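**User:** Here is a favour to ask of a fellow structure person. Please take any protein you like and set down a full record of it. No explanation is needed for now; the record alone will do.

**Assistant:**
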Amino acid sequence: MSRPGRLPVESTREDRIVCHVDMDCFYAACERLREPALRDEPVIVGMGYEPGETSGAVATASYEAREHGVESAQSIEQALELLPRRETADPDAEPTAYYRPVDMPYYEDVSEQVRSILAEYADVLRAVSIDEAYLDVTDRTDWESVETFATELKDEIAETVGVEASVGVAPTMSAAKIASDYDKPDGLTVVEPGDVRSFLAPLPVAAVHEVGPKTATELAEMGIETAGDLAAADPAALADRFGERGRAIYRYARGEDDRDVTPVGRPKSLSRESSLAPAEGDTETVREQVRTLAEAVADRANRRDALYRTIGIKVVSPPFDIHTRERSLSGPVDRPDLVRSVALDLLSAFADREVRKVGVFVSGLSFSAGDQASLGEWDDAGGDTETVAHDDETATSFRSPSGNQRLSGQTTLADFR
């Protein structure tokens, strides 16, 4: 699929087009990626949960599980009362659910794949959690074609990674986020500049940016129950009750939001992956796929003016064993032919294996051409390294090529998806 190029126009704030991409039930979606039998079934992912135990809390409940009252932050014990564990339930018991423990390194790896796609659709990207990001796409599309643009983005995520995203498009960050929640799951909602206030007006006041449950309760005491009520309220009275935040939520309810999408930081790795269904045992077929992925990764690095110090591959073999191998140079380079040859060389270690999925990544990124190393300077200290995670091992045995430390800090229930 050809990527959208930069439009030769100078945008104004009124022209700005912001996309908010939110992955639907992300943890459960990731579990379904490696266990296709879980598709369309109630799936509950627990934090602090171990298979067969009743401790922990619900991190994510699939939409099928939510239909039975299971919600994020519930205790696993409560969830089990609503949906018994499928594997141990009475054969005649209905409904039941599949329970799985949180596997953050795996989810981070999938998140990195999604983010790599997002980076191709926008020059300005801000990932705000493991499963959501803002994109400023003003220079990639316009309001007449943005629905097609966003549809292509959603389709590429689904086809390449295998997870669904809901996308909201609006001229402001706060409206785009609300729009992405408007038609979940797998939704797409476009709110054009002149429609923001009318779009927000009938929504519950809790939908407004910076309005949490406690603030919503206080607003209800003031007779303010919808975003439209808030937009029509007296800003001075709101400031008296809530301070400067009162004026801020008043502006958000009116569709006024001058925040810019600002990147958190540059990526630490770039990758592309491809699934092979069914698992492929033909070595040349897998090698051809690796060649294609290596070219795509090298091209992505080149377009982002990125140099890389490490080249690696990821191989997933049946049932769900994940292997990564990588080779490091003493300094960063920009050599597409090297990415291809090293990836194929690393792949030779898996010549006798069936392959379900294969990926190529570059990491140790830098963005200064002056740092480029010469060929032949492979890091003698490191050599090739390999990491393996089996489906029955703990998550800590898997090393994701992501390198995004911001994601690994997700440990609170408030952050769960």
Remarks:
- The chain is about 35% helix and 20% strand.
- The chain has three domains: 1-192, 210-253, 269-401.
